[in-house]
Design a protein that fits this description.
Oligomer: single chain
CATH architecture of the largest domain: Sandwich
Strand order of the largest sheet: 1-2-15-4-11-12-13-9-10
Number of strands: 27
Helix content: under 10%
Structural class: mainly beta
CATH topology of the largest domain: Jelly Rolls
CATH class of the largest domain: Mainly Beta
CATH superfamily of the largest domain: Exo-inulinase, domain 1
Order of helices and strands: EEEEEEEEEEEEEEEEHEEEEEEEEEHHEE
Strand content: 35-45%
């Protein structure tokens, strides 16, 4: 069921289109009328063209009152920049799951989440002007979304009065400018209850946070690198991006239910809060000396090179020592780095917003030093290893050596259909550091008898 003005079948594909020169004032859906879906797997191909901000979606287990009024779960769809692979609750709780994240919502609506990849790595998986694969698996309270064979998002929804275990299926033509969305090779199959499940791993560290130290300026007074003065004292301002900053109110959670600022103290720099993404500018802190080897700060916002926080050497060279960006998430994350090569030298912090388009924002807070290596750096390093969404299916293996090759192989986890066998191990080999295969299928191993190699 849908409007023939906007939906048609063409060359074996379902086509929804807003023609050139026209705009659509409200969303239109094409509703499948052959029954409800509950526990199912849906596979299809889609092609999205037109406006670069074109948006569509696949409603599932939804409640359709008409072709312009549909509520419930939506597997989102755009050209890869923002929405593709997200799970949304249309006319309900809004954004439920960001891509690269597993979310579990309990009966009362409380959320826990596990990030298995950073958000900004997914846009390259969209095939522009080509057919893309979309797959949804929904079983009981478990939902998984895959695009082009890669896991994008997962949801466990147990919230009473909000979750839906059955409902209708519909395709969306989003309101806005010229857009063409095509669906073909649509395959729907019912699956058994209990046949698809997963867990959300919440990594807890019982150790107390490593205490940080506020840097002191060249005058011996504490620096305003966390904006706890409530203003930009100690910073040089260029452009308009950071007008009316810093920000005290944390409105991120009201706009993005799965995020919060993670600010430290009362104030933080919120690039979106007052100026949106349209303005550009720069903030440069007063210089200060590197008094300790280890340091960190909080950063969030856009992932483009034009939005970044830099640590710069203050010797006239403008050498950038460290540079960090967000992951197209407003929620800030703490980044850690080693300044051992710059102990005793002067540095400054430079916050740059050179992007005036979507996600052209920088969020920042709380530069601090550490007198000892922060234990949080270990978890940060592990998180970076798992960032690539294509590798999200990999299972962690034992990291403590057993001293016995056979025992190590026996405890390894591998993808279904693969096996691991041992052909050589220490002490038969001496410190193997790399291997390769030649054209005859032989394996060659490099042994490290001395360093450097």
């Amino acid at each position: 069921e849908g409007s023939p003005e906007y939906w048609r079948v063409e060359h074996g594909a379902i086509v929804g289109e807003i023609p050139e020169g026209q705009t659509l004032k409200k969303n239109h859906w094409l509703i499948w009328k052959n029954g409800d879906v509950g526990n199912f797997e849906l596979r299809l191909q889609f092609k999205l063209t037109g406006n670069p901000r074109a948006n569509s979606g696949i409603q599932f287990r939804c409640q359709a009152k008409g072709i312009n009024e549909v509520a419930g779960y939506q597997a989102d769809l755009d050209m890869g920049d923002v929405w593709l692979g997200r799970i949304y609750d249309e006319h309900g709780r809004k954004l439920l799951v960001e891509r690269g994240v597993r979310v579990e919502i309990n009966e009362q609506g409380d959320r826990v989440e596990e990030m298995f990849s950073t958000t900004d790595l997914f846009h390259v998986l969209f095939r522009e002007n080509e057919w893309n694969d979309y797959r949804i698996v929904a079983c009981d309270e478990y939902v998984s979304v895959y695009v082009n064979g890669t896991l994008f998002s997962q949801l466990i929804d147990r919230q009473q009065g909000e979750r839906d275990l059955t409902g209708q299926l519909a395709f969306q033509l989003h309101s806005g400018g010229p857009t063409k969305i095509q669906f073909k090779d649509v395959q729907l199959r019912e699956i058994e209850s209990g046949s698809h499940s997963f867990t959300v791993a919440v990594h807890k560290d019982d150790r107390a946070p490593t205490p940080g130290l506020v840097p002191v300026g060249l005058d011996g007074k504490p620096m305003n690198l966390g904006f706890e003065t409530g203003d930009l004292t100690g910073w040089t301002v260029e452009g308009e991006a950071f007008e009316s900053q810093p920000t005290r109110d944390d409105s991120i959670a009201s706009r993005l239910p799965d995020q919060q600022s993670n600010k430290e103290g009362e104030y933080f720099l919120s690039g979106f809060e007052n100026r949106g993404s349209a303005k550009t500018g720069k903030l440069v802190s007063d210089p200060f000396k590197v008094g300790y080897r280890w340091a960190s700060f909080l950063v969030g916002g856009g992932s483009s090179l034009g939005c970044r926080v830099e640590v710069v050497l203050n010797d006239g060279s403008d050498k950038v020592i460290e540079s960090y960006r967000g992951h197209n998430r407003e929620q800030m994350e703490r980044v850690y780095f080693d300044l051992k090569d710059y102990l005793g030298k002067e540095i400054f912090v430079r916050i740059v917003d050179q992007t005036d388009r979507g996600w052209g924002i920088v969020n920042y807070d709380d530069f601090r030093f550490y007198s000892e290596r922060p234990h949080e750096m270990d978890a940060a390093a592990v998180a970076r290893v798992g960032e690539n969404p294509i590798l999200a299916h990999l299972v962690p293996n034992p990291h403590k050596p057993t001293g016995n090759g056979s025992e190590t192989v026996g405890s390894m986890s591998v993808t279904e259909g693969f096996a691991v066998d041992i052909i050589a191990a220490e002490p038969d080999l001496h410190q193997p550091v790399a291997f390769t295969f030649d054209e005859m299928g032989r394996i060659w191993v490099i042994e490290a008898h001395s360093y450097p190699l």
